[in-house]
């Protein structure tokens, strides 16, 4: 059990906000695997303010279990605050501010990790959101822009001073993107400096990795990202190990394929078969990774346009 602001989180295993991945269907999958806190994809403040249809669909939280965190991104305090108010009205339990996304199309607009280059602006954004919403506000960040520009302590302290309820540190710099190794020692250093909860993120591929991160850093919770793509049962394994000291066996091929089929059905339910079939191709490639015969089926996956064609691929793997 962990408390972020006024929100009680049932366990210390969180799923990361991932663009193009953590949509409603995938959130339900990882929730069913036991995640204590589930995040949406990052959502644009401007999309919220201007009522864009795509943004509205991304913010569909109806029927989902709580607690739920909605991550928003932007570069200016006023639209970020307005966007946060709209998110709160939709039922978000926690509002997370993206100050870590490294992708060029985000940082060129002064958003995501670009805000680490402008701490006064980042501080202003945090303050403006905290002042207008009742739910807890959190911040996700990286170590800094580059190895010679590491300033996560400065940003985290600013966040705490402005009323943030927790911070998440992805222990890489922006210019690393996802390469190299996450530097967990910085998570430990951050934890020593902060009064609010610190969530550790980066290079958790197994439940044992999560346990090691908590032991080495003292972080309050772990956030799993790329490790759960195609392997959401890693959430179940991690919850079992951290909360009960129980080591679950690796998921069987049958379990992974069953989960993939269920994920496909949920995606079709929420987005319609045409869109879901196209978007589920990448998920199927992840689910099938490492299975016998998966490589030769990759082309079929990339050309599949219907639910049935994707299910046929699963059946070929089982055969």
Architecture overview:
With 319 residues, the chain is an alpha/beta fold. The chain has two domains: 2-244, TIM Barrel; 253-318, Orthogonal Bundle (Non-ribosomal Peptide Synthetase Peptidyl Carrier Protein, Chain A), CATH 1.10.1200.80. It is 47% helix and 15% strand. It has helices at residues 24-32, 45-49, 53-58, 77-89, 104-107, 119-132, 152-161, 184-193, 207-217, 233-244, 253-271, 273-288, 294-303, 307-318, and strands at 2-4, 7-9, 13-15, 38-44, 68-73, 94-99, 137-142, 166-170, 198-201, 221-224. It has an eight-stranded parallel beta sheet with strand order 3-10-9-8-7-6-5-4. The model has no long low-confidence stretch (mean pLDDT 96).
SS class:
alpha/beta
Radius of gyration: 19 Å
**Based on the structure given, which CATH architecture of the largest domain is correct?**
Alpha-Beta Barrel
**What spatial order of strands do you see in the largest sheet?**
3-10-9-8-7-6-5-4
Beta-strand content: 5-15%
SSE ordering: EEEHEHHEHEHHEHEHEHEHHHHH
Key features?
319 residues; alpha/beta; TIM Barrel; Non-ribosomal Peptide Synthetase Peptidyl Carrier Protein, Chain A; 2 domains; two-stranded antiparallel ribbon
């Amino acid at each position: 059990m962990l408390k972020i602001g006024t929100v009680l989180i049932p366990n210390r295993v969180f799923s990361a906000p991932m663009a193009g991945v953590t949509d409603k269907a995938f959130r339900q999958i990882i929730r069913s695997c036991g995640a204590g806190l589930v995040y949406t994809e990052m959502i644009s403040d401007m999309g919220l303010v201007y009522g864009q249809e795509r943004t509205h669909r991304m913010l569909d939280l109806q029927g989902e279990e709580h607690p739920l965190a909605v991550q928003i991104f932007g570069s200016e305090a006023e639209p970020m605050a307005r966007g946060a108010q709209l998110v709160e009205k939709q039922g978000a339990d926690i509002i997370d501010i993206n100050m870590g996304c490294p992708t060029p199309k985000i940082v060129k607009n002064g958003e995501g990790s670009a805000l680490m280059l402008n701490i006064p602006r980042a501080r202003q954004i945090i303050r403006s959101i905290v002042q207008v919403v009742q739910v807890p506000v959190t911040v996700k960040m990286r170590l800094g822009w580059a190895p010679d520009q590491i300033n996560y302590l400065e940003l985290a302290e600013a966040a705490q001073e402005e009323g943030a309820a927790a911070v998440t540190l992805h222990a890489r710099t922006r210019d690393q993107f996802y390469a190299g190794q996450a530097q967990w020692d910085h998570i430990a250093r951050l934890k020593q400096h902060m009064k609010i909860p610190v969530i550790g993120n980066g290079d958790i591929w197994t439940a044992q990795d999560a346990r090691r991160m908590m032991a080495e850093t003292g972080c309050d919770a772990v956030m799993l990202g790329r490790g759960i793509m195609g392997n959401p049962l890693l959430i179940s394994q991690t919850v079992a190990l951290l909360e009960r000291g129980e080591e679950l066996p690796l998921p069987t091929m049958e379990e992974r394929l069953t989960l993939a089929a269920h994920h496909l059905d949920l995606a079709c339910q929420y987005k319609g078969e045409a869109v879901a079939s196209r978007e589920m191709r990448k998920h199927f490639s992840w689910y099938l990774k490492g299975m016998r015969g998966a490589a030769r089926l990759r082309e079929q996956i990339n050309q599949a346009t219907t639910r049935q064609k994707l299910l046929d691929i699963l059946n070929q793997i089982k055969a």
